[in-house]
Amino acid sequence: QVKTRGRNGVERFKQTLASAADQRIALSRRLRDAVEHHAFELAYQPQVDVRSHRVSGVEALIRWRDPEFGSVSPATFIPIAEENGMIGPMGEWVLRTACAQARQWERDLPGMRMSVNVSPRQLARPDFADTVRRALASSELAPNLLELEITEGALVAPGALPTLRALGEIGVSIAIDDFGTGYSSLSYLRTFHADRLKIDMSFVRGIGASRADEAIIRAILALARSLGFQIVAEGVERGDQLAFLTQYGCPVVQGFLFSAALPAEQIPRCVANLSKLSLEHARHSNKTAA
Ligand code: C2E
Ligand code: MG
Ligand code: MG
Ligand code: MG
């Protein structure tokens, strides 16, 4: 084992670096192409009310399948898009597509909210509020049905405040994504008017295994209650996680337990199935109660 740390190891290390850099450059080029040709899709993940199983909203998640690279995760290509300047047009496409889709669902799935992720660079653009305004205008979506998911770091970045004020005037909601994983002090919660906190899935993963994670979740729920934030927990995969979150008063969850992100055309059926599930559950508990 120690031997591989010799010159061979260094050579191999250099090769890996070179190929990783090359791959990034290649990806960056393909990404420009994809942005130009709108070669993305949006998948939508339900946010489920724990009591009624009503789907109160969906989160739009971008998907990219490149003919050469195959499916590339947004965790990989969003940072590249932020670097090469493609995040602007890409983000605008996401907003427009999500708003148009939400508008289409407004009749059959009334009140279902659309959450859209906004990356730090996107929020930092001085024209961002205008982009949001235009997407709402052209889709004719009610602003209160749009929620923007922003991470703590992006919220507190210099220059974000006027944009957030403008977004507030437009009437869209703001959710703090990955809440609890940033490095910001809690005092920013006073300055920035967020509507909702999203409990990061790294904490949810610790339910049943880490007393610290469980304590942090309870603290976030208490904080949200006393400061008047709405709340959603993300990355809920198991029944025991749902039970814990329900026990401590988390009203809405999102995660593979209920559904992964789905293509738009599968959402109405998923919504119907989830509410059927809760009807059966209610009937069952009525029977056992009688
Ligand atoms: P995020 O906004 O925190 O999204 C949650 C991620 O967790 C999504 O991954 C989702 O598919 C995944 N997820 C949901 N439920 C579960 C679960 O129960 N278990 C596990 N293990 N994972 C779950 P995805 O779609 O790969 O997105 C990754 C990140 O990329 C997102 O994190 C977000 O930061 C970014 N992203 C995705 N779409 C967009 C977009 O349209 N615009 C921007 N700016 N960023 C996006
Ligand atoms: Mg998100
Ligand atoms: Mg998140
Ligand atoms: Mg995340």
Please give a structural write-up.
This protein has 290 residues and is α/β, with parallel strands linked by helices. Helices cover 52% and strands 20% of the residues. The chain has helices at 7-36, 74-83, 87-105, 120-124, 128-139, 152-156, 160-170, 188-191, 201-205, 211-227, 239-247, 267-289, and strands at residues 40-49, 55-66, 70-72, 113-117, 146-151, 173-179, 196-199, 230-234, 252-254, 262-263. Strands 1-2-4-5-6-7-8-9 form an eight-stranded mixed beta barrel, surrounded by four helices. Helix 3 (87-105) runs parallel beside helix 5 (128-139) and helix 5 runs parallel beside helix 7. Bound molecules: ligand C2E and magnesium ion (MG) (3 copies).
- What is the general shape? globular
In terms of DSSP E residues, the strand content is 15-25%
Low-confidence stretches: 1-6
Radius of gyration: 21 Å
Distance between the termini: 67 Å
SSE-based structural type: alpha/beta
Largest sheet descriptor: 8 strands, mixed, barrel
- Provide a count of the helices: 12
